[in-house]
Amino acid sequence: MSAPRLIWTIPTRGDGKANRGWDPAPALPPSIRDGRIGGPAFTPFDYLHQISRAAELGGLGGVYVPYDPAGEESLVVSGSLGRDSRYLEVIAGFPAGIATPVYAAKVSATLQRAFGGRLSWRLEVDLDERVQRAQGDFVTGADRYARAAEFLTVAKAVWHGQDVDFTGRFYEVVKGGFAGPLAGLPFPTVYLSGTSDEALALSAEHADVHVFDLAPDGDLNQGELDHYVSRLGGRPRLALQASVHAREEAAELTGSAGLHGTYEQVADQIRAYGERGFDTFFLSADPRLEEALRIAQHVRPLLAGRA
């Protein structure tokens, strides 16, 4: 069995009690306004870059930039982090209603060119309706999944072809498609999630990886998992999303949920889920910078050594 891929979650609306990375941007000095070189020494984005660099230097597989309507824009952050890294997979979370699939695909093709094909998508479908309405999106209920299916169908069609014609319930394209430098790039790996019938059907058709959430009690019922996987039809790979709390001594931990324990115990828990079919793990802990270093330095080597 290959070593599991560890994906670290980037905070787009502040990190930990100190709320780092969410401070107002420093005011531009007069030299910027006059068109001369100069600028703030350190901005909130620099802190996000510190986290992604820690993940990359520590040998983690990638970073996940979740969609947060009140946070920094995930696709913009993803583009910045991807350009700043060399090896990380950069997974951008965003809702299907954020733009037309043609525009989302074009933005993503440019990002793929910018950092060598390491962009992935994590499409958010089941958003709170109040959040959707605040974003100008009024598609609700099962229609959200029907639209997401059309979104991915159209995005893949224009990405891989030219003279694409498509007429659906939500989108229509006439003679679409990419040419020149935008053509021929790898389509982003598609991550989807959810356990409803609609979510599982969408993943069975379109997902490369289906992400399950770890329950608050730190367990995932095997019977339920087998049922969900059967609905996926064996097509997508499996990923697990969980908080992680790892320390050298168990006495240092208090009331932790998710994956928790000593470094050895957390590595064992991840390995056990790997034996249940999970090959990718979306991990988070606050503060993100220090905990990314902790996982990279103490847990990842144990997993690599036992693979």
Mind describing the biggest β-sheet? 8 strands, parallel, barrel
Number of domains: 1
Which structural class do you get from the secondary structure elements?
alpha/beta
State the name of the first-level CATH class. Alpha Beta
| Helix/strand order, N-terminal first | EHHEHEHEHHEEEHEHEEHEH
CATH evolutionary superfamily: Luciferase-like domain
Q: Can you tell me the residue ranges where pLDDT is under 50 for at least 5 consecutive residues? A: none
How many strand segments? 11
Task: Please bin the fraction of helical residues.
Answer: 25-40%
Overall mean pLDDT stands at 91
Contiguous helical run count = 10
Q: Roughly how many Å apart are the termini?
A: 6 Å
What is the percentage of strand-forming residues? 15-25%
CATH topology: TIM Barrel
Cα radius of gyration in angstroms: 20 Å
Q: What CATH architecture would you give?
A: Alpha-Beta Barrel
Please list the strands of the largest sheet in the order they lie side by side.
Answer: 1-2-3-4-7-8-9-11
Shape: globular
